[in-house]
Amino acid sequence: xxxxxxxxxxxxxxxxxxxxxxxxxxxxxxxxxxxxxxxxxxxxxxxxxxxxxxxxxxxxxxxxxxxxxxxxxxxxxxxxxxxxxxxxxxxxxxxxxxxxxxxxxxxxxxxxxxxxxxxxxxxxxxxxxxxxxxxxxxxxxxxxxxxxxxxxxxxxxxxxxxxxxxxxxxxxxxxxxxxxxxxxxxxxxxxxxxxxxxxxxxxxxxxxxxxxxxxxxxxxxxxxxxxxxxxxxxxxxxxxxxxxxxxxxxxxxxxxxxxxxxxxxxxxxxxxxxxxxxxxxxxxxxxxxxxxxxxxxxxxxxxxxxxxxxxxxxxxxxxxxxxxxxxxxxxxxxxxxxxxxxxxxxxxxxxxxxxxxxxxxxxxxxxxxxxxxxxxxxxxxxxxxxxxxxxxxxxxxxxxxxxxxxx
Length: 407
Known about the structure:
Radius of gyration: 39 Å
Strand order of the largest sheet: 3-2-5-6
Oligomer: single chain
Helix content: 40-55%
Order of helices and strands: HHHHHHHHHEEEEEEEHHEEHEEH
Distance between the termini: 51 Å
Structural class: alpha+beta
Largest sheet: 4 strands, antiparallel
């Protein structure tokens, strides 16, 4: 019976492996149909779905939300559509969404309409649950009967040896009693011979060692906390020079020291920057995508421990951020962006995945992207901007966070 169970399990695993391979082939078929449905109404940069990127993916996500009432993240798109063939299936909810987009009710219905030769769906090939439970119960009963037989053998052997063990125990108890009596007599004799009065020399030696130990402990404490004892803490609050209010944006603070690489800190929105140092001079460079970079130098011997520092806002960068994220009055938004951005501007989109690190685009493509009425713009984040002498924006670096990153 045991070998029969093993045989059935091996057959089930073999069948499952074959079905998994067929499911991967079905998924490749589904990708081709999804691509065909999208190309009926849309004109991406490439007719091959594996070559879509940037704005093509955003348009596809919008069409998927419209037709299938569902969405897939940019990370999932790169994982399952950029590689062909794939080595693992997506989650069942994603398979169902793509199947609905392709015109089917579910992933099961799609497979049912694309059966290969001699293929039977998994539901008809699985072992009957009642049969598996019966086989497992028979194996368990066989194991229990073997364990009970071994237990009976051991108990019979112990019973035959019990009289001999009882005799040995009585002899050991007698010998232990005699040994305890001898030890009590020896301890009484030794106690009477030892004097418990400490000598004067031992007391002096004891106090000397206590004094030395105390001095060493103080020295170790000074060495361990010397930075805290000899350092000073300085608190800097950054203020918007035009609005006279705390800056509600992250700031990058670089601490510059002679013959050392810059040390980068991040000041959180609406929170002061706290810096502890033993140095007498401080040089720090404060930068932000929405404020002009400023280099601040302080003589810490006479500087106050708390100080407010004003930063001048980069109005063009702030307007760029506002117009890029706003989804109201798209016509006015396009005119404003066209005025703010130089015709020869360098625009970079940064991706957080292993396929594309940075993608460049021209001015018109960027304007088309940020004027698309899409929920993806809620995750747009301007990383850096640069302007020329006339105030035109000549460089933009931005990213669109995925829903997975927001979680």
